[in-house]
Amino acid sequence: MKRYLVGGAVRDILMGKVPSDYDYVLVGATPQDIQNLTNTGYKWVGKDFPVLIEPATNNEVALARIERKMGSGHCGFDIIATPDVTLEQDLSRRDLTINAIAQDVETKEIIDPYNGQQDLQHRVLRHVSESFYEDPLRVFRVARFRAKLGFIIHKDTLCLIEKIKQTGEILNLPSERIWIEICKSLETSYPWLFFETLFELDLMSVIANFTIEDNNISIFNTLLKSTLDIANEYNCNIVQKWAIFVMILNLVNQSTSNVSFNVPVPTKFAKVSNILITMVNIMSRSEIDELDMYNLFIRMDIRHHSESIDELLVVYKITGQTLYHQNFQTQWRIIKTLISEYMNFFLSQQYNDIQLKYTGVEMGNQVKKSILEIFKQQILIFDVNH
Questions:
Q1: Burial 11-27, CB ≥16 within 10 A → b, else e
Q2: Contact, 68 vs 77, CB < 8 A?
Q3: Residue 77: partners with Cβ closer than 8 Å, 6 or more residues away
């Protein structure tokens, strides 16, 4: 039995990076070898793949395996993991050559049967074999690796992707798996490249419903790149980056309705993006309406979620500087002032007096009336000064 480091860890080492995780493959492991491992604390995980978890490190240790296409989709495979499966056979089932490199744990020798090192040097994403065609999810993985590394996609791999599209299997992918690829892409160095790639492959409609003319796609790509690059500088999280993506996609959307999605967007992601769109729409008008701002603050519940508001304001600042740079500084001061006035009101004597004098619905009405008057005064001050 021999043990090899495989996949992304080897790729990262060859690129001079520290791997985020380490995956291993065992070649020639007999039933007795596997029994010895489980006796020392190794645990089986998953029901479809022969993978163990190493107790000391929590690293994944898989048995060398080959896969045979038996059905449709990315799960329709028969797994064969026997002691006679070679390292080269195991590596051949992987998606890209840069992920099909191994390192002997003992000798540190690099085993690269599919020229992954050459593709790393040339910054190319190339499929390992024709079996790439068998798993439609790999199309989204290629887009993600382009976002992660900034590499180009090899023309032969693009041809295979076209073949996959023609089968229609992409439309049968579980939307949850596509959402996972989106989230992973938002964590990369070049997240905008994921969506640019989907546009280039004519696959954006798989994740979203919208209308856009071809000449506006380049505008979308330019805006998304500039804003997400700034978002990375601000160390924004994936919720914030998703909100930026949704904001800009709605900006170029030429449909009469807002963009909707075919992937399971979590509630928090949807809420932040919807609030951002509303905030930008309100603040970009020639006249800011105090009632709109009040309703927005109620929706945001800023009294009880100040940390979420800080995250949202960062996103607003990024999109505002990019999309509305001429008037943004004034808009920024207005919204910061209104938030401050809103929060201070609930610490004021005026609020205490309302609580003592009124109850129930009437108290709520008086609070709203007082805040609207404060907002109106502050907006008037800005109008006079600007």
A1: bebbeeeeeeebbbbbb
A2: yes
A3: 67, 68, 69, 70, 71, 134, 135
Choose among 106, 140, 89, 128: nearest CA to 11: 128
> Token pair of 380, please?
């008037």
Q: Which residue from 3, 6, 9, 1 is spatially nearest to 105, judged by alpha carbons?
A: 3
- CA-CA distance, 273 to 96, in Å (whole number)? 34
Checking DSSP bridges between strand 51-53 and strand 60-63, what pairing results, if any?
A: antiparallel
Q: State yes or no: pLDDT of 223 exceeds 70.
A: yes
Token readout for 109 is: 């020798």
Domains assigned to the chain: 1-128 (3.30.460.10), 272-385 (no CATH)
- Separation of alpha carbons 140 and 207, rounded Å: 11
Torsions phi, psi for 251 (to 5 deg)? -65, -40
Rounded distance, CA 216 to CA 232, Å? Answer: 24
pLDDT in tens, 179-200: 999 999 999 999 999 999 999 9
Residue 96's CB is within 10 A of a number of other CB atoms, namely: 24
DSSP assignment letter at 21: -
Residue pair 44/34 in contact by the 8 Å Cβ criterion: no
- Tokens of residue 226, six digits: 């500039």
Cα–Cα distance measured from residue 94 to residue 108, given in angstroms and rounded to the nearest whole number: 21
Place of tokens 């080269």: 88
Q: Tokens 């191994």 label which residue?
A: 102
Helix (H, G, I), strand (E, B) or coil at 5: strand
Report pTM.
Answer: 0.89
pLDDT surpasses 70 at 385: no
Q: Which residue has the tokens 């190794």?
A: 42
Encode pLDDT of 108-155 as tens digits.
999 999 999 999 999 999 999 988 988 999 999 999 999 999 999 999
The secondary element (H helix, E strand) that includes residue 51 is strand 51-53
Question: Alpha helices of the chain — where are they, by DSSP H?
Answer: 8-14, 31-39, 87-92, 116-122, 138-149, 155-167, 175-186, 191-200, 204-207, 214-233, 238-252, 267-283, 290-300, 306-323, 328-345, 349-357, 360-385
List the one residue out of 230, 217, 208 whose CA is nearest residue 320: 230
